[in-house]
Amino acid sequence: MTDATPVRFPDGFSWGVATASYQIEGAVEADGRRPSIWDTFSHQQGNVSDGSSGDVACDHYHRYREDVDLIAGLGVGTYRFSLAWPRLQPDGRGPINQAGLDFYLRLLDALQEKGIRPWVTLYHWDLPQALEDAGGWPARDTVYRFADYATAVYERLHDRVADWTTLNEPWCSAYLGYGIGQHAPGVRDPRAALHAAHHLLLGHGLAVRGMRAVTPETTNRFGITLNLWPVSAATDLPGDLDAARRVDGISNRAFLDPLLRGSYPDDVLADVADITDTAHIQPGDTETIAAPIDVLGINYYSPTYVRQRESAGPAGSTPWVGCEDVESVPQGFPTTDMGWEIEPDGLRRLLVRLRDDYPPIPLYVTENGMAVADVVDDEGKVHDPERIGYLDGHLRACRQAMDEGVDLRGYFAWTLYDNFEWSFGYSKRFGVVYLDTSTQVRIPKSSAAWYAQVARTGELP
Ligand code: IFM
To answer: Known binding site for substrate: residues?
Structure first.
């Protein structure tokens, strides 16, 4: 259900749509690209629920012009997409692969022709397999490889792209990838997950420094995107309150504090002391991680309510590293096709919390959207009122947060079209455009028309 009150966003508020390389590009062997951890992982039986991979995905590599037309049809001014590291540096080190870069130059040309501003993410989970073979994110050397890659790409594209995000959701890379093995590279080792999280953050900081050094006077903007949750205790019982503190610590503050305050929270370090010491955090690391950034991206989908369990699960059984004795408690909100509870006010609370607890920084919602089991009707159309309701509710929450003083500058719907939803393959549809994976036909859903109207008018109808 949508609220009837008209809601307007200020002039200059950015409207966008987001995607990620491995989820859409396909063409995994084209022009010198080499395997990423997701190629390897998705080809191992049992890792992706429908047995699929990103081999073809949305075939965006070949159909990017059609896709840019779709983006233009959405009326959005900005397109957030990620660069595939294994296209640009196929083995994660060495010179930039010109053929891979040419693809992104063609894409940038097409966006420019339509007046769409590019917003680039350097890393959305497709680590070159060669770097994983050398230790992956738990190994410190990957930090330097990432900073080199980021700087080399920035040298080539800084005059074409103004907005640079280093990492998308390091929480997922570290905890899903190395903690519970739900994502590539499929490792179940909480200690490795914590080391990976630190190295991801350090890679971010070094990359920001490296890029700034290329263009010291630039007005280009640098930032990072975090997936954050408003975490609440399910009851006022002390064990549940402490569970909420710990989950908030490992999920939110473990990333926000080093980035924005220059240190890891003491309580989080204490919580994970049984899993790892701090030897992997070397002198100077926290200063590097806190390299000044210009914007913070936030991805929000669902709230988190937790309680302490009666007995703890085994290590590696939860993405909340060290919180094996904590479980989430459904609140009875409607759910998406992912089973994620829908609570738009969670986004408002999250934004307000960032304003209250951290130094001022311009915020962007860099992802928000829902999976729906969409179907094509007899007339070839896809009606997704649930998604419209979701987007409307969350945009109202954004506007409310802005009314409460939050410096929110823009919003990106996740995602342009249905694509490879990681360990769920193509079984979950998040797009505002429907993708028929067998024909590659794209059908804008009713949410696409709705979102286009919002983006063009700056107003919720
Ligand atoms: O599809 C993902 C995206 O790659 C990262 N953020 C969450 C989305 C939905 O799961």
So the answer is: 23, 124, 168, 301, 414, 421-422
